Amino acid sequence: MELIIGSHVSYTKEEQLVGSVLESLGYGSNTFMFYTGAPQNTLRFPINENKTKEALDIMKKNNIDIKNVVVHAPYIINLANINNFDFNVKFLKEEISRVENLGVQKIVLHPGSHVGIGIDNGLKNIIDALNMALKENSKVIICLETMAGKGTELGKNFDELKVIIDGVKYKDKIGVCMDTCHLNDAGYDLKKFDKILDEFDRKIGLKYLKVIHINDSKNIINSHKDRHENIGYGYIGFDTLIKIIYHEKLKEIPKILETPYVEKCAPYKEEIEMIKNKKFNEHLIEDILK
Length: 290
Ligand code: FE
Ligand code: FE
Ligand code: ZN
Prior knowledge:
This protein is of the alpha/beta class. The chain has a single domain (5-288), classed as Divalent-metal-dependent TIM barrel enzymes (TIM Barrel), CATH 3.20.20. It has helices at residues 16-26, 49-61, 85-102, 119-133, 158-167, 180-186, 193-203, 238-245, 268-277, 284-289; strands at residues 5-8, 31-34, 70-72, 106-109, 112-113, 141-145, 153-154, 174-179, 209-214, 216-217, 228-229, 255-257. It has an eight-stranded parallel β-barrel with strand order 1-2-3-4-6-8-9-12. The two termini are 32 Å apart. The structure holds fe (iii) ion (2 copies) and zinc ion. The site of one fe (iii) ion has 4 residues, from loops. One fe (iii) ion (FE) binds next to loops.
């Protein structure tokens, strides 16, 4: 089976899903991830059905399976705290229906930050919010992202994610997105990735793993920072990331790059090429800027 790999791509009011697909094809991807608007705000615009149809057609012709495509929910909605709780739940409900209209099946969500009310209360709020937003007939899976543990972020370890999943009523509508930078920053040693997968399988179950964000990290293990680095240029390193990307047990899981732009240039074409070659490109940055 072919590697399922892509990156974060843009999604504009004008071109919508068509723009996202074309951008990802330009990187040599066979999947992609996008925000349905700006990641840092909740302003959203209506979906153009014609654009969606056109995009699905382009995807079909290029062997992009929609089930591997991912939407990332805006990171400012915080389901862990009661501040703006009703607004956030309402936004999540609307986001689910937007994503369903686009035919996309996976939504990556940052669980939230408890901002002082404590881990248990925060986790309880997240569970309540998810149970309010997910319906029996929802066609999406909400994938809780593993977080770096910056500030009061929840989801920084598998135990916290397990508490949330245990509390969610519709278990077939909940999953996990591992982020390699976040795992590193949260204290997981990615050099021992099999051990991490075993722990995940024991505590949560591998079938819940739906997406992997592939990022290097600007910081050392357990730094709780969350600053992404280009593949092979950070503290995780190329060989470790390649082992994860090509892991036998993760073949069917989409891998999404969220590495930083280099002087306003997207690095994804060059990074994906390097990943496909399985050989570190020490001239990556120059190649991106070419
Ligand atoms: Fe994220
Ligand atoms: Fe991520
Ligand atoms: Zn991050």
